[in-house]
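Marked as duplicate of an earlier ticket. Keeping the data here for the record.
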Amino acid sequence: MSDVEIREVSADEAAIRLDHWFKRHYPALGYGRLQKLLRTGQVRVDGGRAKPGLRLQAGQSVRVPPLRTQPKVKRAAPKPGPADIEFAQGLVIHRDRDVLAINKPAGLAVQGGTGTFRHLDAMLDALTFDAAQRPRLVHRLDRDTSGVMLLARNRLAAAELGRSFRGKDVRKIYWALTAGVPSLRRGRIDLAIGKAGGRIAVDAPDAKRATTLYSVIENSGNRLAWVAFWPRTGRTHQLRVHAAAIGTPILGDGKYGGAAAFLPTDALARQVHLHAREITLPHPSGRGMLRVTA
């Protein structure tokens, strides 16, 4: 069909959801119609079927059928104000020619959405510094997760970092407080997970292999533990689901741990106590490894 477009995902669109990508490029296309186009296979990513929440990567191709929509009129995003500039720049823990690393606080969303107006994506202009362009998102953390996040400072770095995150070159270590203490001080969790009933679950119909290593650093009796997690695969909510599956949900994670994820006291904040402690991967310049700790 001559009106079909094949569009390449640019480096500054890495990690954006497919439905958000369409909203950016085809604002007149309604979500319901997009869902139908995805269900019927008219919209494809790298030749395969996709779901609205798929996180795109730089260089992927998106098949767009004839939409009969008006072309997007690009509007400039609002610039961050003085308070957000100071806030965003205060998050930076590493900076070189190609990469910025920040220590994202819990509660800050990476990208906007319904009812979310203050997010990292809206503050990226504040992190341009001496670069020609604002930095690009190459991966994400959940709103409730704190810790290390990397940003690419140029197109080449974004492409190289994207390849690393898609492959097996990235090592991540997370710290968490768990409600309860794992029965083994060190262990390996091999439980396939997938979507079921609006959330991620063990042995769901579309479950994919997921592996997590863990080690208990300290514990307070049998009520609370400080645990290091090393995910060997990168499934959505993998650590939260795996921690709950072995009977020690991450503290504050009511979604996967229910009431057992909370202590009978208000001494600790009622939030998900998960922190991206360290990330190690090849530097996008090709000069050795990059290791950042927060």
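See parent ticket for discussion. The chain has a mean pLDDT of 91.
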